Amino acid sequence: MLPEPRRPPRPATLPSAFCAVVAERRLLQNLAYRLLGSARVAEHAVRETYVRWYTMPDDEQGDIDSPVTWLVGTLVRICVDLLESSAPRVGGQTVDQAGCSRLASPSPRRWSAWRDVPKL
């Protein structure tokens, strides 16, 4: 039996824009999960962050020196909003929209200091 001919190797580098988007999305998902404690709610927060970024006018996007910093700041504000408006607590547990119970998040008063942080 003859060995199968090898395919030519793929280029070792991916487009830099693609790599940057994947890296920042992973960063945002990890941060949101750590803040919210739910992968599903974290994914919602990351999507909302990207919606705000891509619906922003081009001239405003151009004024931002570090898009990753803007995305992280916006994501943190979205997560704080979600924590402050979380579902009612029952017996120390929070029931999210999917009906899954998880430990109750910290008191919203703890997150109120984040509201005063200037936008980046």
Task: Give me the secondary-structure category.
Answer: mainly alpha
Over all CA atoms, what is the radius of gyration? 20 Å
Q: What letter string, H or E per element, gives the SSE order?
A: HHHHEEEH
**Any idea how many domains?**
1
User: How many E strands?
Assistant: 3
Approximate strand percentage: 5-15%
Largest sheet: 3 strands, antiparallel
N- and C-termini, Cα separation: 63 Å
Low-confidence stretches: none
Integer average pLDDT:
75
**Count, helices:** 5
- Strands of the biggest beta sheet: in what spatial order? 1-2-3
Helix/strand layout:
Elements: H1 16-36, H2 39-54, H3 58-63, H4 67-84, E1 89-90, E2 93-95, E3 101-103, H5 108-115
Antiparallel strand pairs: 1-2, 2-3
Helix pairs in contact: 1-2, 1-4, 2-4, 4-5
Polypeptide structure, described:
- It holds the Pfam family Sigma70_r2.
- One of its GO terms (cellular component) is DNA-directed RNA polymerase complex.
- InterPro entries: ECF_Sigma-70_Domain (IPR052704), RNA_pol_sigma70_r2 (IPR007627), RNA_pol_sigma_r2 (IPR013325).
- The structure is a single chain.
- The protein has one domain.
- Helices cover 57% and strands 7% of the residues.
- The chain contains five helices and three strands.
- The chain has helices at residues 16-36, 39-54, 58-63, 67-84, 108-115; strands at 89-90, 93-95, 101-103.
- It is flat, with a radius of gyration of 20 Å.
- The model has no long low-confidence stretch (mean pLDDT 75).
